[in-house]
TrEMBL record:
GO biological process terms, semicolon-separated: cell wall organization; proteolysis
Organism of derivation: Defluviicoccus vanus
Name of the protein: D-alanyl-D-alanine dipeptidase
Cofactor binding summary note: Binds 1 zinc ion per subunit.
Cofactor: Zn(2+)
GO molecular function: D-Ala-D-Ala dipeptidase activity; metallopeptidase activity; zinc ion binding
Gene that produces this protein: ddpX
Catalytic-site annotation from UniProt: 159
Record has Membrane as a keyword: no
Residues marked Transition state stabilizer (site): 67
Domain of life: Bacteria
Annotated keywords: Cell wall biogenesis/degradation, Dipeptidase, Hydrolase, Metal-binding, Metalloprotease, Protease, Zinc
Methyltransferase found in the keyword field: no
Chain sites annotated for binding Zn(2+): 94, 101, 162
Length: 185
């Protein structure tokens, strides 16, 4: 299987899969089981990012990773807006295990860094380069962008939290929950 389990113990990250709760833009639980997976190529980039972040006194908190195609349809049916939700007919990098949504934790304070908006905030304020942000928020976004791109990730311009492998469509298949030994749905 091209997907590997990602855990706090094995990967040195915090995991808070928002879609395994009702704390997401749909207001309902999408994943019945909070399991985190990534394609092995994505995992390699993630491990580099974990190392870079740790050297600077930060820890990554994963908010989403592999998203079964069934879950992508649930998100799309709730909000069919390709500005923020990949059309499942086209395929989401998340459904390929090629994308991760995350934030940074300051290891000194234990606090999540301020990025100006929350995760899945569907406004232009969430975009990279958005105007009207404080200098501190812009620095935090630049720090995350630098860590992730240095680790080999591409970014999605409309979401400060979303990073993916370069050109995943056509390189990685869209996967359903059925490929997992222990499913999420």
């Amino acid at each position: 299987m091209p997907l590997v389990p990602i855990t706090e113990a094995t990967h040195g990250v915090d995991i808070d899969l928002v879609y395994a709760s009702d704390r997401n833009f749909t207001g309902r639980t999408i994943y019945r089981h909070p399991r985190c997976y990534l394609h092995r190529d994505t995992e390699a980039c993630l491990l580099r990012a974990v190392d870079f972040a740790a050297r600077l006194g930060f820890r990554l908190r994963l908010l989403d990773a592999f998203r079964p195609a069934e879950a992508q349809w649930m998100l799309w049916n709730h909000l069919p807006d390709p500005t923020y939700i990949a059309d499942p007919r086209r395929g989401s990098p998340h459904s390929m295990g090629a994308a991760v949504d995350l934030t940074l934790i300051d290891t000194t304070s234990g606090e999540e860094m301020d990025f100006g908006t929350g995760f899945d905030d569907m406004r232009c304020l969430s975009w990279h380069g958005a105007a009207g942000l404080s200098a501190a928020v812009e620095r935090n976004r630049a720090l995350l962008l630098g860590l992730m791109t240095n680790a080999g990730f591409d970014f999605y311009r409309n979401e400060w939290w979303h990073y993916q492998l370069f050109s995943p469509r056509g390189r990685y298949p869209v996967l359903t929950d059925s490929v997992l030994a222990e499913g999420m749905m």
